[in-house]
Design brief:
Blueprint: E1 2-5, E2 10-16, E3 19-26, E4 36-43, E5 49-51, H1 59-67, E6 77-79, H2 85-88, H3 91-97, E7 102-106, H4 107-117, E8 123-125, E9 130-132, E10 137-142, E11 153-157, E12 162-166, E13 179-180, H5 185-194, H6 204-212, E14 218-221, E15 226-228, H7 231-241
Parallel strand pairs: 5-6, 6-7, 7-8, 12-14, 13-15
Antiparallel strand pairs: 1-2, 2-3, 3-4, 4-5, 9-10, 10-11, 11-12, 14-15
This protein binds fe (ii) ion (2 copies).
One fe (ii) ion binds at residues 86-87, 167, 222-223.
Length: 242
């Protein structure tokens, strides 16, 4: 793990082959007294992808972290699970510095928000569609309302079996190692008990079943540590808890 900003403790670490977790700890706030983290994932490949840009106010920090691995100007895709500030707040800042970059999201997000608010047209993904970055082949899954947002969906890297699971398994707190194999379900369920960010739609169980069937080895969580282990079992445990 490398700290890329000494003031904020923004850091970057490789968590799977060619996949880097960028994380910025946030100080305590009234809603989250133990603090929080915003993570982004950089996939280094012929066509580099950033999954989540982070909020607009973190743009200089996220850019600085990317630049420690590859020039941010070379980004090709800016992936997002659903339209919220921590997912895509600095999309236009990144489009401004990376001339070949394009937002990448589900077709609902493209239609509802991204093609209006982003300065460049999005590459829309259909459920089950695969995009190749070079070595990494990423499959898109539509997961409406899981955990929230009609436009929600996830990318799964079939090459490293990494699921970019966004807000699933959100862990509170500001201090998290980049990649762990210990318990993340307990902390995330404890947070959900205080602050339920799930929509609890009727097909939540079926969608989690689809994600489990990918048999991920790494869960690239957006808040907290990334996790390594039997992803299918952990996702089914989450589904049972919901
Ligand atoms: Fe969210
Ligand atoms: Fe999030």
């Amino acid at each position: 793990m490398k700290t890329t900003n000494a003031q904020t403790n923004t850091n970057i670490a490789e968590i799977a082959d060619g996949i880097y977790r960028i994380s910025t700890p946030l100080p305590p706030n009234p809603a989250l007294p133990g603090g929080f983290t915003f993570n982004q994932y950089l996939v280094v490949d012929d066509e580099p992808l950033l999954f989540h840009t982070g909020p607009r106010k973190l743009f200089p920090l996220v850019r600085e972290a990317i630049d420690s691995v590859i020039p941010a100007t070379e980004l090709r895709y800016l992936g997002l699970s659903h339209f919220e500030a921590d997912e895509c707040g600095s999309i236009n800042e990144f489009l401004g510095v990376a001339p070949n970059a394009q937002p990448l999201c589900g077709n609902i997000a493209k239609m509802v928000s991204v093609d209006d608010l982003a300065d460049r047209e999005a590459h829309g993904m259909a459920d089950g569609e695969v995009i190749s970055l070079g070595r990494h082949k990423l499959r898109w899954f539509d997961t409406p309302h899981l955990p929230h947002g009609w436009d929600c969906g996830y990318l799964f890297d079939e090459t490293t079996r990494t699921l970019f699971c966004g807000d699933l398994f959100t862990q509170p707190g500001a201090e998290h190692a980049p990649l762990i194999d210990g318990d993340i379900l307990g902390p995330s369920e404890a947070m959900r008990a205080q602050m339920d960010y799930y929509a609890h739609a009727t097909n939540t169980g079926a969608l989690l079943g689809t994600l489990a069937a990918c048999e991920p080895k790494t869960l690239a969580c957006m808040h907290g540590s990334a996790w390594s282990g039997d992803g299918a079992a952990l996702i089914r445990e989450l589904a049972a808890g919901l």
